[in-house]
Amino acid sequence: MVFKSSKRRFFGFVCILCNVVVVWYIEYHASKKPLLTKDSSFYHGSRKQRNTIVNISREYQDNESGMIGNMNKIIQIMNDKYTKIFHKSTADKVLGTKNVDIQNDYYPFVDFMFVLSDMSPEVNKTQKYLMMVLVNSGAKGDEFRKRREAIRQTWGNRSNCEQRKALGDERLKDLKWLLVFVVGKAGSGTNDDELNMAEARQHNDMLIGNITDNYINNVNKFYMGQVWASTFDIKYTMKTDDDVYVRIPRVLEYLVNAKFPRPFYGGMTYPSIRVNREISGKWTVSWRYYNETHFPRFNPGAFFILSSDLLNKLFNYVCIRKPFHTDDAYVGVAMRDYKVNITRIDSFRVGPRMPKFIRTVKDCEMLRYNAFGDSVDPKSARELHRRLQSHLCSKDTFIKC
Ligand SMILES: *[C@@H]1O[C@H](CO)[C@@H](O)[C@H](O)[C@H]1NC(C)=O
Ligand SMILES: *[C@@H]1O[C@H](CO)[C@@H](O)[C@H](O)[C@H]1NC(C)=O
Ligand SMILES: *[C@@H]1O[C@H](CO)[C@@H](O)[C@H](O)[C@H]1NC(C)=O
Ligand SMILES: *[C@@H]1O[C@H](CO)[C@@H](O)[C@H](O)[C@H]1NC(C)=O
Ligand SMILES: *[C@@H]1O[C@H](CO)[C@@H](O)[C@H](O)[C@H]1NC(C)=O
Ligand SMILES: *[C@@H]1O[C@H](CO)[C@@H](O)[C@H](O)[C@H]1NC(C)=O
Ligand SMILES: *[C@@H]1O[C@H](CO)[C@@H](O)[C@H](O)[C@H]1NC(C)=O
Fold this sequence. Notes:
alpha/beta; Spore Coat Polysaccharide Biosynthesis Protein SpsA, Chain A; glycosyltransferase; three-stranded mixed beta sheet; transmembrane; eight-stranded mixed beta sheet
């Protein structure tokens, strides 16, 4: 135990040391060029949150001529920093479920790395976006392609009626957003990777990274999406899954009404729940990753919003606590540790039996919600879409709620 705590202190020291070096690196480059963001209307707090370490978006934007080269360098710095602190991790890898020490092993073991996507949408870099919608999706099998297709045809489709209406709304019409699917690799044995790449070329809306597509690696996928988003001039990211339905214009309206809050970590906040410690449970997290009996309140991964000023914190947090696979709880712990308030968005609904809810919910109740999840299969998404569109756009349906 004595050894353990001195080891911890030692790693803490290494972490501080790395931070000092990286802060110096950032400051050095930053001093050569002022911040690019001149539009301060979104910022309500002070800009002085300089305790963060790697300002990816600033580094990236400082060097527009060599963007990719530079981004690789930043990723490398971050991965080096991480491996310095958790370099023993590969030795810590627990295979299978036999002999798991739930106290002292990293279980389930996450081979964490910052990953740059090999394939990403071509986007006009000078365009400002208010929000990037990052939809985590699967790489293996048709099911996920069908889900993505349904999203492109329903809530992700710019020609849908709710979105056309938003273009006529003074407050919303200039608030740009992009929706991007974030996927890993299926690996050999199937042609899924080829199909996914063809899909990415066709729709220009997918990030594909060298991440083995499985549940444990979700957190790597989550970080890949956030890192990519952070290289744009954005104010928010909204992380979702591919089995949800989101009324994007209503989410934008929420942010307008809330006066573009920063820092902001919002979603359908769960109460503080007990951490599962059962070997081979889907949500099990060992004590070594997280040593409290309960998670703090966090926003479930079906959909949550982060303001972009929190992204650097999130990137640097991997040096403080090794990422575990339930990424939504991990983000909640990070935000708690950084003393960021969590905001519950009442119009977000996460619940079991969503398809049944969608079939049976009354119109007025349906219209109260801006996000529905999870387990919204393509058929339910289309059904919900049809109902929403018919109420929002047809001239002769007026419903009083
Ligand atoms: C990081 O850089 C971006 C882009 O230059 C800037 O808008 C943002 O304020 C910076 N963040 C921090 C925490 O300094
Ligand atoms: C900018 O990019 C170029 C080309 O990739 C590279 O040689 C140079 O070192 C980069 N500068 C910074 C400050 O990262
Ligand atoms: C990129 O976006 C900027 C800002 O909206 C715009 O002025 C420019 O024309 C765009 N470039 C292309 C190639 O679309
Ligand atoms: C978006 O919706 C329009 C109108 O329903 C449809 O023609 C188009 O194919 C959809 N886009 C995609 C990418 O599915
Ligand atoms: C993908 O990652 C694996 C292991 O993480 C590595 O062995 C392989 O070379 C990578 N492939 C590419 C194309 O980067
Ligand atoms: C739990 O972990 C924190 C750091 O992550 C450490 O400061 C604390 O002493 C640990 N508590 C116990 C009971 O091990
Ligand atoms: C968090 O919320 C509490 C209560 O609403 C407030 O007093 C506090 O100032 C907030 N903290 C931050 C950092 O915004």
